[in-house]
Amino acid sequence: CVLCGRTDDCPEKYGEKRTYVEYNLTVHNYCLLMSSGIWQRGEEDEGVDGFLITDIRKEVNRAAKLKCNICKKKGASIGCVAPKCKRSYHFPCGIQKECIFQFMEDFRSYCWEHKPVQKFPDKECKGTSQCTICLDLVEQLPMYNVLKSPCCKNAWFHRECLQYQALSAGIFFFRCTVCNNKDKFQKEMLRMGIHIPEKDASWELEENAYQDLLHHYQHCDIKRCLCKKGRDYSEPDSKWEIKRCQSCGSRGTHLACSSMKSWEQNWECVECRSIFAKSGSYSKQKKRSLPTSEKTDGTNCFLEEPSPKCPRQSPGSQRSFLLQSPKMMCQNNSSSCSHLELPSSNRVSLSPQMSDRNWSLRKRELRKQQREVSNILKELKLQVSSKTTRLNINAENIWDSALKGFRQRKFSPTNTIEIKFTNCKNRSTKDTSKHRFFQLLMLRLQDSSLFEGSSTKNLSLDFQAVKENLYFEAGKMIAVSLVHGGPSPGFFSKTLFNCLVYGPENVKPALEDVADVDVAQTIRMIKYANSLSGLQSTVHDSYEFLAAAGCLRPITALCDKNMLVNDILVYHVIKRTISPLESFRQGLKTLGVLEKMQMYPDAFSSILCHKPPRLSAETVCDLFTIHSSSDVNQVEGADFWMSYLQDVESGESAITLEDILLFVTGSFSIPPIGFDPEPTIKFSHIRYPIGNRLLNCLELPITKAYKKFKSKMEFAIRNTLRLEGE
C-alpha cells in the first residue's frame, strides 16, 4: 500500500486492497478514506472511488515527510483531530495502538489519548456477561475491545464481533442484536469506530440464496407409508397426492396414508401438534385408525398421532410371565430346526396382572419404541468406518481423559473407537473396555456441574464451562455414545428434552425444573400468595432478584402472580441457560443424532428421559439366540436356562440378571442400539459357563440335573465378576 507500506490483504481490518496497474498504484481502502490531506473531488467512477490519482500522489508525497509516532517510520498520513495534538500514524499502526477512526461525516481520527470512550455508571462495571454475537464471555469494563449497546442495559459486545457483523449486515440490517434498535445503535457504533458499509446485507447479495423457498415439499413422513411407489411419489387429484402440514409446510403425507378423503381436509404434522398442545391452543383431534383390513387383532393401530409414553416398571416390582421358547438357529443342515416345547409342568401361568390388557399394550408400545430407536441408531452407525481411533483413558479421571481424547486432532466420530484404560493392570478386550468407558462417562456427565437437578436434570449455567466449550463436548459425547453402542444418559428432564427437540421458545418450564432452593422458595411464595398485599410484599422483598432476571412487572391484582411465576421460570430455566443450550444442541448434532431426535421425539424420549427398565427374565430370554447342533440334545439345557432366569428374577439366587448380562457382554444394561454381534447361547461339553465378550456368546455346560447347572452358573459368574472387581 502506497500509504501505509504494508502488504497485508485483510479487508476486515484495512478495507479492500486494490491495485491499479495503469497507475502503478496499490492502496488499502481504509488508509485512503482516513488520510487527513485528501478529499473526494471527483465523481464516484473517477480515480479510486472519487479520489483522483493526482490527489493520491500528492497525499503520498505529503505523508512521506511525516514520521509515525508509533512505528517511527515515514509515511504517516493520518493525524489526530484533537486540538493541539500533533500525533500522526499509519492506519494499521493506529489500529494496533487502539486509536478510533470514525467512518462518517469528515472521517475523523483520534489518537489513543484523545479517543472517545463510552460512559456508564460504575455499578454496571462489574462481572462478566456474554457477547450477544459470539456468546463468549466478555468483561463489563470500558475497554477498547469491549462495547456496550446504547439502547440495552445488559447487551455487551466484542469490538471484533461487532465489526464483522457490520460488514456482513451493511447499513440496512446492522442493528442491536437484543432490542433490534437501528438508529441509536448505529450512531453510537459509528462514534466508537465501527465501519458500517453502505451496502446491502451479504446474504441478500448471494445469488439464488432463497432458491430453496421456491420448492414445494414433496415427501410422505407418516411412519407407515402405504404408497407402493415410495414416499416421494405424488399424483395430483388422487389419494396419492401429497398434502403438506398447514402450519409449517415442511412435513407431508399422502391423503390415503392419513385417511383423508379430500384435499380440503386440514392436516398438521406431529411436531406442530406437539407445539400447539404445549401452548394450550390445540384442540385435540380424533385419532384416525387404519382401514378395517389393516387393524391388528382388535387393537387400534393409529397413524401419525404418537402413542403416549409407557409408564416404566419400578425396580422392585415383579411380574410373572409366560416364558416362551428361546430363538433357535440351526448349525447343521441335516437336522431339522423347530421351536423347543417346554414340558407342561414347567410352564408359568399368566397372572391376572399380566393378563390385564392395558399392561400388555404398554409393554408392547415400550418394545416398539426400543426397536424403533435401535433401528434409527443402527442406520446412523452406517456412517462409522472401519478406520480406528484409540483413546487412552484413565478410569480415575474419566472426564479429563475423555475430553482430551475427543479433542485430539485425529479423533473423528465416524471412526471406530477403541478404548485402552491406562491405569488397568489386567487387559480387557476392546469392546468390553468401550462399554465400560461409555458407562463411566455417562455417570460422570450426570454428576457434573454442567447439569443441575436431582433425578431428572436441566442444563446449569457454568461460565467456565461455556468459555471452554464443554457443553458442546458433552452433547458430542452423548451422541457418540448412542451411535457407538454405549448407554444413553437417561437423566434428561422433560423440559430439557423438549427444548432440544421443539426449541426453547416453545417450552413451558415447571417449578420442578428449578434446582436452586432459594429461587424455588421465592417462586413458591409468589405462587401461593393468597392476598394482594402479601404478593406485593414478596415482590418487594425479592426486588433485586426480579430486577436482575428482568421479571419486574406492576402488581395490581392477585392474578398477576401467574404471569410473574411464568416469567421467572422461563428466565431461570431457559433464558439464563440459552447459551449452554445452543452449544449442547450443536454437540448433539454429531452424527445426525439431534435431527433424528426431532423426527422421532417419542422414541428418543424413552431413552434420554428415563433410565433403562430393570432387566426381566423375559427380556434376557428374548435377548439371546440359541445356536443348536445335531450332536447335543438341548431341550433340557434350554429348560434349565429359562428356569435359572426365573430363579434369578425371583431373588432365589445371589446373582442378578445384570450380572449375567455383564458376564456375557461387559455391559450392565442393554444399550439403545442393541448389541453387535447379537448375544447367543451355545451348549457345549464344558465344566463351567464361559462368557465370550468379544462375540457376546454364552457357552453353557450340559448337565443332567438343574441343581448342578445352577451351582455351576453361580460359581462361574460370581468368581469372574469378583476377580474383575479386584
The total of beta strands comes to 21
Question: Structural class from helices and strands?
Answer: alpha/beta
Unreliable stretches: 281-355, 425-431
The strand line-up of the biggest sheet is 13-18-19-21-20
Q: Rounded to an integer, what's the Rg over CA atoms? A: 34 Å
The global form is: elongated
Word description of this protein:
This is G2E3 ligase. It is found in: Nucleus. InterPro entries: EPHD, HECT_dom, Hect_E3_ubiquitin_ligase, PHD-type_Zinc_Finger, PHD_PHF7/G2E3-like, PHF7/G2E3_ePHD, Znf_FYVE_PHD, Znf_PHD. Keywords: Ligase, Metal-binding, Nucleus, Transferase, Ubl conjugation pathway, Zinc, Zinc-finger. By secondary structure, the protein is of the alpha/beta class. Among the domains are: 17-110, Herpes Virus-1; 122-204, Herpes Virus-1; 448-611, no CATH class; 617-723, Hect, E3 ligase catalytic fold. The protein has 26 helices and 21 strands. It has a five-stranded mixed beta sheet. It has a two-stranded antiparallel ribbon with strand order 1-2. A hairpin with a 7-residue loop joins strand 5 (100-101) and strand 6. The radius of gyration is 34 Å and the shape is elongated. The N and C termini lie far apart (72 Å).
